[in-house]
Amino acid sequence: MTMNAISRSQIYVLDQDQALDFYVGKLGLEVNTDQDLGFMRWLTVNLPGDPEREILLEKPGPPALDPATAEQVRELLTKGALGGYLFMTTDDAHKTYEDLVGKGVEITDEPMERPYGIDFGIRDPFGNRIRIGQMFPRG
Amino acid sequence: MSRAVEESNRAMLRARDAMDRAYAQPLDVPALARIAHVSEAHFIRTFRATFGETPHRYLQRRRVERAMYLLVQTDRDVTDVCYAVGFGSLGTFSRTFKQIVGESPTEYRRRRAPSVAVPSCFTKAWTRPSSFG
Fold first, then answer.
1. Domain count within chain A
2. Residue A98 pLDDT > 70
3. Domain holding B69: CATH number?
């Protein structure tokens, strides 16, 4: 038996409310689950129409991480070195790009045509990278 | 306590992202320091403490990386490539390129073949010639 889907992925964020402003308010994702479990706030989002694939927006801190380790995570995240990376697709890269520029999203890479499609890069408020691509059909 | 470090890191990252995005424009330290909301002297010092090299060196290596890319992936001539990646003169470009890569732009182009296409942010991150050894 092999696995059949990537159902949830996780990235670290410094502030979950600010993460909602960005991922839902600016990028247009939907809140999938937002529940206070007592020991943590379980906060996941998904692309509209795709609730089977969730992104967990997790805040690093104790007791999951000791305070010193959490501090290291925050420092690496904010210098863009933690490795959090999301890849999303769109039907129209240029249009999505204009839309996000209008919303003040930080662009790291302008739209460019590549052999696999047209894509561009953005940065979330915390330091995670996101790449958005209009992919050409494969094969 | 560590909040100040995080804010500083994020501001330095914003300036570094600006270099990655707008390397072709005449970026200078005052412009980058404004993006990071700090003084010029503070910017150079803090950028270096954060990323291990000065902003000038980071930008030069970004420009050389983009030049390496254009030399291999396109047939634009060397002068054209030099200005396209943000160098102000062919002399500075050739000298800097050779210093960093170890051979001239023309020699470099002759030896390389185009590579597999992966998202360009990875290419840019991994092929920017490094001084870190």
1. 1
2. yes
3. 1.10.10.60
